[in-house]
Please model this.
Amino acid sequence: MANENKESTNTISSLERARRHLYSIGNKTVTKREGIDGFSQKDSVNHDWNDAPLSNGPSMKKHRHVRIAALFFGSALVFFLVAVGSATYLLYFGGSSVSVNNVDVAISGPTTIDGGETLPLSFTITNRNPAAITGASLNVDFPEGTRSATNVLEDYSYLQEDLGTIAPGETVTRTVKAVVFGAEDSRLSIPVTLVFGTANSNSRFIKEASYDFSIVSSPLSLTVVAPTEAVSGQSFAITLAVRSNSTTPLSNVLIGATYPFGFSFASSSVPAQNNTFSLGTLAPGAERKVTLTGSLSGPNSEGRSFHFTVGTAATSGDPAIAIAYASREAQLILSAPFISSTLTVDGKRSDPVVLTPGTRSSATLSYTNTSGSSISNAQIEVQISGDAIDYDSILSTRGFYRSSDHTIVFSRETDASLSLLEPSGSGIGAFSFKTLPGTSSR
Model:
């Protein structure tokens, strides 16, 4: 029987045995498994599910990532706290490095002023270094001609003020007032330097800054009144008017003149010295005028320019302008005279004509209308001057002698041709005079 069971078992295929084992009730383990090669072995594989989690599951990976992020955040927080603490310590307790970039120099004041008025400036110095700066000195270079606000006659071109020691984080403020002059519509710059050192070094540091402002009006204004045309060789006048716009008296006021080529200076209402006219001291609102006369010679239609400058001299009696406040130009065009004239004495046209004392000389004046149109009521004057002339001996043909100013006048009253002088029309006038003997003069 046993043999039959054994045989029966041997005749069942391995697949059938597995099926029966799978569907058997209460079978927990496989006690025997026959391999393909015919050998049998114990099999300890448990077929019941175990609820214990796998060692390398997703929950384990998530837990590991959280621990790494927390470690990184903690390290960053520690580094930040150490950096803040170090900076605070260096700033307040022991840093010694000093840089000019950590020193601020701020300048405040008006951007525009009137020339000759007081300029108020405020300087604010801040030390942002971790160490104190020592021996600080504020240096200001004012424009040339700047005067003291307390005494306008006192020069105030440079300021140096000692600020001493400036602690870390400390701010020092200084105010300065000065009376600044300059030409109208000019832009000026005031350079400022702060020189300082440190306690543990002999080196000196320099911090530079500047303040820019504009002069909107000049303390002195200049007006020029001159003709636009001048006849070559004929006298004309130019009037210069200087007015003080300053609120304080201005001393050593000068007018400088630059004349064009061909100008012959004749006279002026104020004595000239090296082409300058001294006006002395001008009170606020005062005005002075200078009239000068002269003549120009040159080709027809040629332009000539006069240049005038008003300012002040450095010292009294100095003929040179130290500070210029205003400049003006006068443009003149040379024009040919409507009537050209030629004067001969004893038949000579040379300049000068040499005469013999005590003799009578004859002079001839010829004139021609050089314009392209007719000239009506023309008048020509010849003035005679000199100590060698016997004025009682002057006689004129077709002319009138005006003894009050020793002038001979040719006009329509004495010469009918001057009533209407056609283009290219001409005429002749004549007069004579005696020279005094060589032993007498007037």
The first strand starts at residue 33 and ends at 34.
